[in-house]
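Q: Structure tokens for this one, please.
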Amino acid sequence: MKIVSTPKQRKWSDGLYLRAEEFHGHGGPFMVIGLRMGLTALDLLDAKGWFGIRCRAMLRWRPPDSCILDGIQISTGCTTGKHSLEVVECDGVAAEFKSGEKTLLISVKKDVLAKIGHELEEEDHDEEPGELIEWLKEMPQEALFETSTR
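A: Here is the predicted structure, written as tokens:
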């Protein structure tokens, strides 16, 4: 079996977003959140990705919240097929990442979720919410997430 030895990228790029968009089938704010969660986890845990990291996502197991899972899969290499991505049904949006002895909890801030909910209610559902996606791409990590390590 050939195992990928190149580490996953840790920084946002348009190429990463395009791969995620192709994998997921369309762009969207929750997929962007998943990408950003994964990139944050790789960076803060100093993880290589693919195999040295596990994720337990805690969210509502239906779109649009579950779209986060595709972003996490693309950014970290954690997948349901390898059993390195687990889903726990609950309110809110958070993910716990583990690499070696380190654990990182990333939660999306409630005000961010509220803004997304409001914007999606106002959007034309036939169009991708471009301004919302750009806002989430460019938002400082500290404004988007609450993080804690142990």
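A few notes: The first strand starts at residue 54 and ends at 59. Strands lie at 54-59, 85-89, 94-99, 102-108, 145-149.
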